Amino acid sequence: MEKEVTYNGLKFEPYIENATIKARIKTIADEIKRDYNDSCPLFLCVLNGAFAFASDLFLQTEGLNAEISFIRLKSYEGMDSTGEVKEVLGLKENIEGRTVILIEDIIDTGITMHNLVATLKEKNPAQIKIATLLFKPESLQRDIKPDYVGFEIPSKFIIGYGLDIDGLARNLPDIYVLKEDK
Ligand code: IMP
Ligand code: MG
Question: Ligand 1 pocket check: which of 13, 106, 107, 111 to mutate, most ligand atoms within 8 Å of Cβ?
Fold first, then answer.
């Protein structure tokens, strides 16, 4: 793990190590295996940010009857939420009557998830569950309660393990937090 990384002139320091992330994901995968043993859930990975979490999580559900698919939306420019949620792209599956488990990298204001859940509900799934690697409860502006949370974190900007700053830093195996000038 690098001591410090710099992107766009901003310094980030180590926050959550890859081994810690992986261990937490194993626990969540075990819970999901237990909870959806009978329902052949469809995991829906929200691209781009959730690709790493989705990959590790899904592979840890070995033995569970499940499918995975990928959707894409975008609500973030640089470090400020635009609050705007664009349309859901890439959903080819019929989700009517199915258990859908949304896989998200991070819930910040909750606006993205709130709008996504509302859109998907129109397609009449049996239920929609939310698994997010990271959750910033203090930033929440919508009534959204994730069912599976990797880590609750303070309202700070983070990168790595899929999370980006202007498209970069997604390939860091560990998670880093924006360094505050002290
Ligand atoms: P929300 O709609 O405010 O909950 O934002 C959700 C999306 O914003 C996430 O899927 C991320 O793509 C992005 N996001 C929120 N916080 C961070 C962060 O700290 N680092 C990188 N991306 C973030
Ligand atoms: Mg995202």
Answer: 106
Apex 146 CA angle, 63 and 64, nearest 5: 5
Give the model's pLDDT for residue 180: 86
* 0.85 exceeded by pTM: yes
pLDDT of residue 86: 59
Q: Is the CB of 49 under 6 A from ligand 1?
A: yes
pLDDT the model gives residue 23: 98
